[in-house]
């Protein structure tokens, strides 16, 4: 029998052991974690909507009308009017012809990718794509060719020498580095080589683009240029669930073929109602994005002054590069002792030697919150040794 205990011991020795914190109360910057008050800078609640009273009221009010459980899959008797209305709103929001509501972002990526490619096809995947994209590629049984992160020239050569049906799949904004994919160049390349482009914009929707319509919309790219976009409600939108938006032919095809859509119970209709309200807030409340960007700009300039190493990200995802996994854990622990929750990200989530603290900002953070975070990092700067030379060659750093 496999020695699971030895594997766990090895993970602990390598500084790679993962543990859960117990959170009580609503999700907001001021959290209670393991019974202790902390100021959190590690949530994906980018617009501060997870505890918004309008969303909780919409969900609560809907419960009396539509009940709680989804009760069945969409193709049996679970496809509620509330789901249908949300999909119509999503199509308009994304500028696509149609949309399909999935239960989670992981299920959306796995279902979409594995439905649209098979063992005779080829998928081209960015080296830093999210695990859900990687697993969707594996599940498809297609040939998977990984291209270097954001390297359009390398991808062009790979596409040129590959016949048959081709998919190119990428994150819009990469979850661990916070940088954006070269979407305009990818769209042109896919058009030239007759490849289907799929963009997972989980970290772009709500934060990027006009009215928070995402990184694809920030570049004015149409459905003809980027046919399929995938998003999640569990981040900037503050609710739960996910979606894919694109041509009606493809969403209908996914209804027939996407196993993670077909073979699971539909999300609660009340949650769909709350997500419709969230879409309205995201579109209307531009001040949230403006405040978020101001926090990011202040943080970046101050951290460089302190001597920390950052990635070139202008998004709410701000990685603070450390390098060694143990050193990242030590920095995270030192901040938590000051009441600041910033989690360490270590392999295999990031490459070996590229461990980091992933600071994420929310529009619910105040300037005073940011000042407290910066004071915490200032008190810990002695823990960080220079890491530039030890980082992978693919890392792009700001000093």
Query: What summary fits the major beta sheet?
Result: 7 strands, mixed
Task: Let me know the average pLDDT.
Answer: 94
For the record, what CATH class of the largest domain applies? Alpha Beta
Strand content: 15-25%
- Name the CATH homologous superfamily of the largest domain: Type I PLP-dependent aspartate aminotransferase-like (Major domain)
Based on Cα principal axes, name the global outline: globular
Number of domains: 2
CATH architecture group name of the largest domain: 3-Layer(aba) Sandwich
The topology string of helices and strands comes to HEEEHHHEHEHEHEHEHEEHHHHEEHEEEH
> What's the number of helices?
15
How many strand units? Answer: 15
Distance between the termini: 49 Å
CATH fold node name of the largest domain: Aspartate Aminotransferase, domain 2
Secondary structure: helix percent:
40-55%
Structural class: alpha/beta
- Gyration radius, rounded: 21 Å
Quaternary? single chain
Low-confidence stretches: 386-390, 393-397
- Widest beta sheet: strand line-up: 4-10-9-8-7-5-6
How would you sum up this structure, described in words?
- The chain is α/β, with parallel strands linked by helices and 399 residues long.
- The protein has two domains: 17-47 and 286-390, Aspartate Aminotransferase, domain 1, CATH 3.90.1150.10; 53-284, Type I PLP-dependent aspartate aminotransferase-like (Major domain) (Aspartate Aminotransferase, domain 2, 3-Layer(aba) Sandwich).
- The chain is 41% helix and 17% strand.
- The chain is built from 15 helices and 15 strands.
- The strands form three sheets. The protein has a seven-stranded mixed beta sheet, sandwiched between helices.
- α13 (286-306) packs parallel to α15 (367-380).
- It is globular.
- The chain starts with a helix and ends in a 19-residue tail after the last helix.
């Amino acid at each position: 029998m496999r020695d699971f205990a030895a594997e766990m011991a090895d993970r602990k020795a390598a500084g790679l052991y993962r543990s859960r914190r117990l959170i009580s109360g609503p999700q907001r910057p001021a959290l209670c974690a393991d019974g202790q008050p902390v100021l959190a800078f590690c949530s994906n609640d980018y617009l501060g909507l997870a505890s918004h009273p309008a969303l909780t009221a919409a969900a609560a009010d809907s419960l009396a009308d539509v009940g709680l459980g989804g009760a069945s899959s969409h193709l049996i008797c679970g496809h509620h009017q509330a789901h249908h209305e949300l999909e119509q709103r999503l199509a308009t929001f994304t500028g696509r012809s149609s949309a399909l509501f999935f239960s989670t972002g992981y299920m959306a990526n796995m279902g979409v990718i594995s439905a649209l490619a098979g063992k005779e096809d080829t998928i081209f995947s960015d080296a830093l794509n999210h695990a859900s994209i990687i697993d969707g590629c594996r599940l498809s049984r297609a040939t998977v060719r990984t291209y270097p992160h954001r390297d359009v020239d390398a991808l062009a050569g790979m596409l040129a020498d590959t016949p048959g049906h081709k998919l190119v799949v990428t994150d819009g904004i990469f979850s661990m580095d916070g940088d954006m994919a070269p979407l305009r160049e990818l769209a042109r390349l896919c058009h030239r080589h007759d490849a289907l482009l799929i963009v997972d914009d989980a970290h772009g929707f709500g934060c990027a683009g006009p009215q928070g319509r995402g990184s694809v919309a920030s570049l004015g790219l149409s459905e003809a240029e980027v046919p399929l976009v995938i998003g999640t409600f569990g981040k900037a939108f503050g609710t739960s669930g996910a979606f894919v938006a694109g041509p009606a032919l493809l969403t209908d095809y996914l209804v027939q073929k996407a196993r993670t859509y077909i073979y699971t119970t539909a999300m609660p209709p009340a949650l769909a109602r709350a997500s419709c309200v969230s879409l309205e807030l995201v579109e209307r409340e531009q001040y949230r994005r403006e405040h978020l960007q101001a926090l990011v700009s202040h943080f970046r300039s101050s951290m460089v002054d302190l001597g920390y190493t950052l990635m070139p990200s202008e998004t709410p995802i701000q990685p603070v590069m450390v390098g060694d996994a143990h050193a990242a854990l030590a920095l995270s622990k030192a901040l938590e002792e000051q009441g600041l929750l910033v989690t360490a990200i270590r392999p295999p989530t990031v490459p070996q030697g590229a461990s980091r603290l992933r600071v994420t900002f929310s529009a619910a953070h105040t300037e005073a919150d940011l000042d407290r975070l910066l004071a915490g990092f200032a008190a810990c700067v002695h823990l960080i040794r220079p890491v530039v030379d030890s980082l992978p060659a693919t890392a792009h750093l700001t000093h």
